[in-house]
């Protein structure tokens, strides 16, 4: 029996707001969408501007706020901002870079101010793969040490992993390692060629499908929850599997909740997972270090600036974001796909590949029913 969940209207409020506090970072990741620099930008949003942004997010009630970068720990006011957000009843989590800034003292401070979760990136099951991908020797060891600190402090841990040609052959090893780290959520990212990300680092469309099926297979075997980023078509794979298992249920519809089994924590959104499908600009919005509003950090199309207008106004009124929230307007096979309202494909990858964020997901192998019927009609 499905829990009774408040379903937000994504035309009115986002579910997740990502704020890039700074682009400063000491790592040199091969895939960095921010193309991070060693120094902070002079025009970053100030502390007071950040608090005004948090006020607006709090007024929208629903969103979860994620501090990212660069490295958010490069800002001296990061915990002041986090404490202010918590005081405003905004759920806050953070994704710091694995650098010497990640100390046990910093984690204790995060816990004291009320951060709901801390996320670390692990992109390989050993230091050779991870450090190469992160462009920094010693990053793996710092990450593992920091995770031990986090577990000592009993703070919820999220592991982020970018799937690429560097680690595609070691997914079983990655799963075994993540199982030992006492994490609550494994967030599996699929590379989008933006920033420093390169096409040649991406896995193939067929490999995307293979990884989706593997994730669907292991999701009931592991002690943590799994979600994907820039891989909306994983939802389609999960729903197809549910539909195969429920052949006798002729009333079964294509619904996002069928792709989101009740979480290990006992509530569907207990880990901050949306109760319906999130996509770029559709339940999801990104604020850059200088206040630009994008559908996501991987889709760098400017929709406005929070120094000029409130985030809530930009989110609701931007024609770009309104288009992204209407899957019936998508082009190509995504626009006619029966899964478009729960999947929709990665708008970021469509933009990176074609220059049009409304185009079809280029790394999806699925042929929609409408196109299969059309082909059958033409050949009969």
Automatic annotation (TrEMBL):
Its cofactor is [4Fe-4S] cluster. Keywords: 4Fe-4S, Iron, Iron-sulfur, Metal-binding, S-adenosyl-L-methionine. The keyword DNA repair does not apply. One of its GO terms (molecular function) is 4 iron, 4 sulfur cluster binding. Residues 11-244 form the Radical SAM core domain. It holds the Pfam family Radical_SAM. This is Radical SAM protein, BA_1875 family. It comes from Aliicoccus persicus.
